[in-house]
Amino acid sequence: MTEVDIDKENAAIAKAYKELLKVSYQTLTVADKKLIRQAFDVAVDAHKNQRRKSGEAYIFHPIAVAKIVAQEIGLDATCIAAALLHDVVEDNPDYTLADIEEKFGKTVARIVDGLTKISSLSKEADVSTQAENFRKMLLTLNDDVRVIIIKIADRLHNMQTMDSMRSDKQEKIASETLYIYAPLAHRIGLYNIKSDLEDLGLKYTEPEVYHEIHNKIKESKEEQDAYIKAFTKVIEDSLDKEGLSYDIKGRPKSIYSIRRKMLKQGVSFDEVYDKFAVRIIYKSDFANEKFLAWKIYSIVTDHFIPNPIRLRDWISSPKSTGYEALHITVMGPKGRWVEVQIRSERMNEIAEKGYAAHYKYKEGHAEDALDTWIDKLQEALESNETNAVDFVEQFKPNLYSKEIYVFSPKGDLKSLPKGATPLDFAFSIHTEIGMKTRGAKVNGKLVPLSHELQSGDQVEILTSENIRPNSNWLDYATTARARSKIKSSLKDEKKEVAVEGKEILRRKLKQLKINLDEKSINEMVVFFKLKTSLDLFYRVGIGSIDNPMLKDFASSRSGVIMSYIKSKIRKPTVVQNIDKDEITAKYDSLVFGKEEEKLDYKLSACCNPIPGDDVFGFLTINEGIKVHKKNCPNALSLQSNYAYRIMQAKWIDSSQQEFAAQITLSGIDNLGLVNNITKVISSNMHVNMKSISFQSDDGVFSGKINVVVKNNTMLKKLMENLKKINGIDKVIRV
């Protein structure tokens, strides 16, 4: 580079720096400016020999990121300094974290450390690594949520300047942006940045689609501006009459959201009806905000007919990101639907700046929305039983989910993801309440735990000390928090059964003259084709390994020839890690439909499902039931064209499946008989009573009981105990 070029570049760097101070959303004090200047000097020095792929000096990148942080997200001087320094430690060995801490203090150092950790994560392309990185990234929230916010700004600038990269690199970074960063920006309330990230993501993942929509928006801009002008003219006079101070802007919807509408509704660009929104931003003091919003609403709807289904009132109950606004869709001129967003200047700032505006308006004395958000994230992170991909899949719906608002009996408002059930509500109040949920009332009526809650419902949870979560609860719970707590409770319960099972096994083996020691446990695990000793004890505990099976085992041990052969055959099959702490979910059989029946099936060749995959059954004409993975390439077309031939299907661990059985009883009626029968059933562990009916006819008693049991052994045991009841004559399984 010639000296002239270097001078030019230095002048450009100085100009970019000055601009950064000018655009800051927060007012910067003298001390703030000093801190930012110091960070700028260190960054210039650290990156002095670096250039980006495009050839420009690297320092432009940290300045641009700091500018996004200062202007678009509106964070303070600490964050601006951290954004300037975000690549220093990673890119220049002369600067250590200790240096940063010494010069800029603990907070800046902590944020820079978090950002360095994220960058050093492996950059492999496969989904599971991406997911693992994502999880680690969220774990850095422990340190400081600002890490994530600056990371989003960093990603936005990288997406804006990707043109000189290889196309495979562009695609990888863009898909990761759509998969992870856009949902995160949405969740933090950075809606403008979310839209930019989505549009840029689309630009590199589906360039033709992006450019086609982009050009069409450009072509229709003039016509659109004229339309918005005509639309606003109609309302302006009425708004002026009321003496309101306001600003009306037309805003085209993002390319990505237009594309999403086209796909979702199966329509072309021209058929997407609300390609733009009209925003009315009004001046108001805090006390009159609500009143004025509804006043403007009534003026707009005086002139244009609203679509009643599409009223969104986020002023009475703001989104959990703090977003407040009234959204209405009205029938505008020429029979076109127009979305109108009504916000005060304060609401508009919150919509555009997210939490930064909250800080400005709350001035630290109200409950901090950011803290509650971090708490929610922490919960999801602490349940680390799931693997990373599941975690992201669980986390994403919770990120993007539409929210519903429900009330507690006392009238407190709770926000839950759409599709949530009373069980989710119970766990959202407190884990203890969730664990002890016996039932729920919605708007005063008893409902099943699987009932889908709607916005505005009032939910009361009924609890009981002797209730424990059962495996059905996983079918009813939708939030990550509820599911992880239920899973860990079920695991603990299985361990308790296993402890009991171990004692039962010790007693039963004693009768067979076998000691329960490491050697015999090892042999039994191999003999019963299990994975761990815990599996063995659990299966004895629930009775799926019963006396005859243990006798078979004992006889296989005796016999000299047998033991000789066994020593030859069985030696190599020493179980690896027999004391591993798990009860394997052996997904060894498939069941279909609501009744979970076992039916004949074939695995389809197009997606080759394996045990444990999410699957569904498809009823073919000649080949019976074919099983497909839910994400099979053909799944969408099968589900949309032949919905009536789709069957629910899921893999189950045969040792943990439950079966329904009916028992009939007869005998002589006497006082307290019914009480004795129900006592016996409820004291039989692992037996669940579904329905019961009795009748007494001239002193003769007959009854029918439907129970759910894990296996035949349990049913026999129950029937034996029922026979012992005084007055019972016959107990028969139907």
From TrEMBL:
InterPro entries in the record? ACT-like_dom_sf, ACT_dom, Beta-grasp_dom_sf, HD/PDEase_dom, NT_sf, RelA/Spo_fam, RelA_SpoT, TGS
- Alphabetical list of PROSITE patterns matching this protein: TGS
Q: Tell me which residues make up the TGS domain.
A: 402-463
Which Gene3D superfamilies is this protein grouped with?
3.10.20.30, 3.30.70.260, Beta Polymerase, domain 2, Hypothetical protein af1432
Q: Which superkingdom is the protein from?
A: Bacteria
**Record Pfam families:** ACT_4, HD_4, RelA_SpoT, TGS
Function per UniProt: In eubacteria ppGpp (guanosine 3'-diphosphate 5'-diphosphate) is a mediator of the stringent response that coordinates a variety of cellular activities in response to changes in nutritional abundance.
UniProt lists the family membership as follows: Belongs to the relA/spoT family.
Entry protein name: Bifunctional (P)ppGpp synthetase/guanosine-3',5'-bis(Diphosphate) 3'-pyrophosphohydrolase
Q: Which organism is it from?
A: Gelidibacter pelagius
